[in-house]
Specification:
Blueprint lengths: L4 E14 L2 E14 L3 E5 L6 H8 L8 E9 L2 E2 L5 H7 L4 E4 L3 H4 L6 H12 L4 H14 L5 H5 L8 H13 L5 E5 L7 H18 L2 E6 L2 H7 L2 E6 L2 E7 H6 L4 H8 L49 E2 L4 E2 L8
Parallel strand pairs: 3-8, 3-9, 6-7, 7-8
Antiparallel strand pairs: 1-2, 1-4, 4-5, 9-10, 10-12, 11-12
Helix pairs in contact: 4-5, 5-7
């Protein structure tokens, strides 16, 4: 039922061993996702969004990677599961739409065969029934002549069609948890709208939870129930979508929202921009990571702020707790 916590991420940290020592990338990320809820994670490129998603799926295979914290899915810690049990979970109860449909599909197999393979791993179906299921899913994605498309190779499909194939594959086993890593990137607005409708229908039909990773605040406003804003590997702000858009509490969130073009009112000659660039992981400030780019920086910002609880919403900014 709605309100039941499906996924709980507690103090997730991802670091890599380097010649210069341990390099932290994701630092102390925590959030929960309830059944039938859509949680969006937003932020600039390099903020740690995709690495967080790959960590949840246990897809970081670099031997120098070190993961810590807890990722509880249906009461089980994913990070401590044996590899065989994680393989059963991945693609079945938990599925992921990867960021780049151009390279995520295997080029030497037809798209139908790739969907069938996933179905056979997680469902007790014959190959013929699995193929029928794959064709049905492709049709549900709005692909014309799905049986024909199932017999094609990825290079024979457009970017939008490949993205739909990726979504069909992710939905093939009716996952309880879907991670969508920038599913609308590089797609035209018409296809974007269709893909967002597909994600919403998954939530409505199956009660699935969705973790949506994006940099598009318009997409967030349309589909997300709650939002986590990430910056430099940490959560900068977390709130319900209406609260975040109506009254952001972190200067970084102000900057992201300020860069959205306005549909009404006078047209600005130039969109506001956040000065500078996110710090690289090896050169993050000792205090607030956003302080070098913040117009409101002051003395307390020399100390790293915790994620303050503001009564149902959270902000890692000292200004947010000033009287």
């Amino acid at each position: 039922m709605a309100g039941e916590t499906l996924l709980a991420v507690e103090n997730l940290c991802v670091s890599f061993r380097t010649a210069g020592g341990l390099l932290p990338i994701v630092e102390g990320v925590s959030f929960t996702i309830d059944k039938s809820e859509i949680l969006a994670i937003v932020g600039e490129s390099g903020s740690g969004k995709s690495l967080t998603a790959l960590s949840l799926m246990r897809l970081i295979t670099d031997p120098n990677a070190i993961l810590s914290g807890r990722v509880m899915f249906r009461g089980r810690d994913i990070l401590s599961l044996p590899a065989r049990e994680m393989r059963r979970l991945r693609g079945g109860a938990m599925a992921m739409i990867f960021q780049d449909p151009m390279s995520a599909l295997t080029p030497v197999h037809t798209v139908g065969r790739q969907i069938v393979e996933q179905i056979l791993v997680h469902r007790k179906l014959s190959r013929a029934d699995a193929r029928d299921r794959a064709v049905e899913l492709l049709g549900a994605m709005g692909i014309a002549a799905p049986a024909t498309v199932a017999g094609r190779y990825p290079h024979q499909l457009s970017g939008g069609m490949r993205q739909r194939v990726m979504i069909a594959m992710a939905l093939s086993c009716d996952p309880a948890m879907l991670i969508a890593d920038e599913p609308t990137t590089a797609l035209d607005v018409t296809v974007q709208a269709q893909i967002l409708e597909l994600i919403l229908s998954l939530r409505d039909r199956l009660g699935a939870a969705v973790l949506l990773i994006t940099h598009d605040m318009g997409v967030v406003a349309r589909v997300a129930d709650r939002v986590c804003v990430m910056y430099a590997g940490r959560i900068a702000e977390a709130a319900s979508t209406p609260d975040l858009f109506e009254a952001p509490c972190h200067p970084y969130t102000y900057g992201l929202l300020g860069a959205i073009p306005r549909l009404h009112g006078p047209r600005a000659e130039r969109l506001p921009a956040i000065p500078g660039a996110p710090p690289p992981p090896y050169d993050r400030p000792a205090g607030c990571s956003f302080s070098p780019r913040c117009a409101w920086v002051y003395e307390p910002c020399g100390e790293r702020p915790p994620l303050f609880d503001l009564g149902g919403r959270f902000s890692a900014c000292y200004k947010a707790v000033e009287p």
